[in-house]
């Protein structure tokens, strides 16, 4: 949550700016969990779970994007150029939920 408002910058890995996978890899590194740097590679980490079993902290992956599940129908992510890290509704139509560790 402390990174809400940090700007999206393609290729940025924090802590003052992030892209989507830079954000997730940075946040998880603070917890001692190493993630690959790209969203596609992060897709291969952990265990895929059904949305009904998702808990805050799980990854939400869709082609070209990755976010962190925040509970309910929300996620925290670095969305795209011109935006910043934010909480927002899950917009992906059929995302993959991934449990790490």
Give the biggest sheet: 6 strands, antiparallel
Radius of gyration: 12 Å
Q: What's the average pLDDT?
A: 96
**Helical amount:** 10-25%
Number of helices: 2
Cα separation of the termini = 21 Å
What is the SS-derived class? alpha+beta
* Unreliable parts: none
Shape: globular
What is the strand content? 25-35%
Biggest β-sheet: strands ordered side by side in the sheet: 1-6-2-3-4-5
- Give helix and strand order, one letter per element, not per position: HHEEEEEE
What's the count of strands? Answer: 6
Would you kindly provide a written description of the structure presented here, covering whatever features stand out?
The chain is an alpha+beta fold and 101 residues long. It contains 2 helices and 6 strands; from the N terminus they run ααββββββ. The chain has a 6-stranded antiparallel β-sheet. A hairpin with an 8-residue loop joins strand 4 and strand 5. The longest helix is centred in the first third of the chain and has 11 residues. The chain is globular and about 30 Å long. The model has no long low-confidence stretch (mean pLDDT 96).
